[in-house]
Amino acid sequence: MKSPSTYSRPRSSGSAHQTTPDRFGYSSSSYASSEVSAIQNQKSNSGGNPVAAAARSVAALFVSCFTPPEASSSKSFVDSQEFKAPSGSFVSSVCTVEYRVVSDASGAGSHRPRGSNRGITSSSYRSAQGKEAGPLNFTMEDIFQATRNFSPTFKVGQGGFGTVYKAKLQDGTVVAIKRAKKSLYEKHLGVEFQSEIQTLSRVEHLNLVKFYGYLEQEDERIIVVEYVPNGTLREHLDCIRGNILDLATRLDIAIDVAHAITYLHMYIDHPIIHRDIKSSNILLTENFRAKVADFGFARQAPDSDSGVTHVSTQVKGTAGYLDPEYLKTYQLTEKSDVYSFGVLLVELISGRRPIEPKFELRERITAKWAMKKFIEGDAISVLDPRLDHTAANNLALEKTLELALQCLAPRRQSRPNMKKCAEILWSIRKDYRELSASDFRSLSSTSHRSASIKD
Ligand SMILES: Nc1ncnc2c1ncn2[C@@H]1O[C@H](COP(=O)(O)OP(=O)(O)OP(=O)(O)O)[C@@H](O)[C@H]1O
């Protein structure tokens, strides 16, 4: 459950460009010039390893961490009349007990979908089999029937938004039914609900949860989406869903997520910034295909055709995944998702959560710890200890950390876009497969040789 806590950060033009440390330790004192220069000096004596050289050059970006962010020519989304938020709609952000940063949004719900309180969209015209099945005209009765009056037996999850149930519709389609909490204190849920249904109704992609419809009636707000049966990525990294994920599967998942975000950023009419990319929002199918879920914080991206470079908005997202430049300037772009994706890459490689309070201070912020290790030439110690140090794993580890370092660049201009991330990951996977195959060949020829010696 979300509840207001200590984090409060009202928009204030005066403070936006100061070099104050953020609460995750990415400050000029803790992670910028002196520390990185020292690391770079060490590395400059370490020979001509191309990976290390790339790491060094990207590491230099950390030196410029928290310099004033934008040239004055940049144009904000709120500068545009069309998207101006209603006056007085900006309020302080708050942090939840789960460290999820939420706030009453100014913009996510600015375009209510047309129609009544019974939501049927183009995406809801399809059944689970992908057939054109006609609109799923949900009534409260349908929902009660499908969930057996919201029986706890069918409950599969609980999030900040509410409770999630697995249910079967009358046509046999298995769906997830998300029922919003009714708490009077949770006004932001209305905004999250609007944001989620608006976004879901505009998208369709193999790596995004499919939308079937919604219902908004009196104090009930319900979203019906594809049921994804194999839990969240975080549950798999925690090994509470069976076996440990091997690196090949982790690379596949990273690529699926990269495809989903690329689609949101580049391949729809009005691109979308997800704003909450994290391992607990990545759902897995039985075949370990990844589907990005939870569009409660999604926001329309700035319209680059009209020269708008960013959206000025309150900070939303989840601690540990938040782009420090967005935190500091309130300027949102697609590159904030790229930053979160960088954190996700480190999570996939290390198995650790983005914030690990139980570790000593210097290991507590996983991305920061991992990047430091990588820059120091000690990538090996970042690999999830439950994975083997094969040649293929070690190479993929180095290359993935190198990409993560680029995604985590303090300044958004230095981060690659998501399409580039996907391309780099394809090439990492290709090399990984080739090396795994040759690892396997040499292993089997060794065992063949030792069997012949015995004969
Ligand atoms: N489509 C789905 N298929 C199967 N399980 C789901 C689905 N959507 C959500 N769940 C389960 O319900 C849980 C809560 O999901 P939900 O999207 O409501 O989270 P949330 O409210 O956004 O949480 P948070 O605020 O922590 O991000 C998930 O962790 C997952 O276990």
TrEMBL record:
Disordered: annotated segments: 1-29, 106-131
Residues binding ATP, per UniProt: K182
Matching Gene3D superfamilies: Phosphorylase Kinase, domain 1, Transferase(Phosphotransferase) domain 1
Limits of the Protein kinase domain: 150-427
Keyword vocabulary terms for this entry: ATP-binding, Kinase, Nucleotide-binding, Receptor, Serine/threonine-protein kinase, Transferase
Catalytic activity: L-seryl-[protein] + ATP = O-phospho-L-seryl-[protein] + ADP + H(+); L-threonyl-[protein] + ATP = O-phospho-L-threonyl-[protein] + ADP + H(+)
UniProt-recorded name of the protein: non-specific serine/threonine protein kinase
UniProt organism field: Senna tora
EC nos: 2.7.11.1
PROSITE patterns: PROTEIN_KINASE_ATP (PS00107), PROTEIN_KINASE_DOM (PS50011), PROTEIN_KINASE_ST (PS00108)
Source superkingdom: Eukaryota
InterPro entries: Kinase-like_dom_sf, Prot_kinase_dom, Protein_kinase_ATP_BS, Ser/Thr_kinase_AS
Family the entry assigns: Belongs to the protein kinase superfamily.
Polar residues: compositionally biased ranges: 1-21, 118-127
GO molecular function terms noted in the UniProt entry: ATP binding; protein serine/threonine kinase activity
